Amino acid sequence: MWRYEKRLQFPVRIVTPNARLAKAIVSQLGGPDGELxxxxxxxxxxxxxPTRENMALLTDIGTExxxxxxxxSAIIRQLTRNLTADQLRAQGFDDYYVDHTxxxxxxxxxxxxxxxxxxxxxxxPITDLSEDMAAEQKARTTYDNLIRLADDPxxxxxxxxxxxxxxxxxxxxxxxxxxxxxxxxxxxxxxxNPAFDL
Amino acid sequence: MSAEAMAALRGVMIEGxxxxxARLFLDTHPGDAxxxxxxxxxxxxxxxxxxAYAAQYGPLRIDDPxxxxxxxxxxxxxWETEG
Lengths: 198, 83
Prior knowledge:
The structure holds two protein chains of two kinds. Helices cover 60% and strands 0% of the residues of chain A. Chain A has a single domain (19-183), classed as Ferritin, core subunit, four-helix bundle (Ferritin, Up-down Bundle), CATH 1.20.1260.10. By secondary structure, chain A is mostly helical. The radius of gyration of chain A is 19 Å and the shape is elongated. Chain A is built from eight helices and no strands. In chain A, helix 3 (35-45) packs antiparallel against helix 7 (125-149). Chain B is built from three helices and no strands. Chain B is mainly α. Chain B has helices at residues 3-28, 33-57, 71-74. Chain B has one domain (3-74): Helix Hairpins (Orthogonal Bundle). Chain B is elongated. Chains A and B meet through helix 4 and helix 8 of A and helix 1 of B.
């Protein structure tokens, strides 16, 4: 089970609303490489992991990603507060506003709805951990792109923190993948699926 | 939220982050004695910062004694700019 902690992992206090930037950042909530897909990817993959270490790692990173989803949502909420319909239109937010007003909804920057098709749970730890490493790099690139679009230090600080977390998670998943490969005891660790054939 | 409360909450975040980061390292290095020692220190520092904050400014967890009052509902939520 999970219990809530009534705080963010990293502080978010944005003074100046900017709906145009919010519409880009929402991709890290509900986009193809966003925090929701990250959390669901790891929390669903963990059941097929063959080692105690990897069950723990996927549980704990999947949990941290839920906290990152909350940081992104807080950023979007604060960037879009107290704006008039005219201001929202001038900042290119009118299409999101029509569908969701000021609510938080997981979509990509392009407007595409969140879908479970953004991630895989293949039931093979070599395959799944390889996806996880790629997912962390894709999320890191997305943060790089957002950091180029943003010039508000209140927004840049949490984006930079989240970008660094992708790099740490990539490192941990690399260790996890290596441990699974070494546990297979031979050079051809593709010969079997340790989650299914053993 | 007062400047003192914000500073105290930031202290909880700092200790909590040390705990999060050490946890992930220990997940892939569960036998690392130095990391185990760091983790135990981080647990104690986090618990102390969290309890001190909750006692003075409102609960962060439903098992904080302060959560029996109205603070869970009434104190700022994390997405509120005053939170």
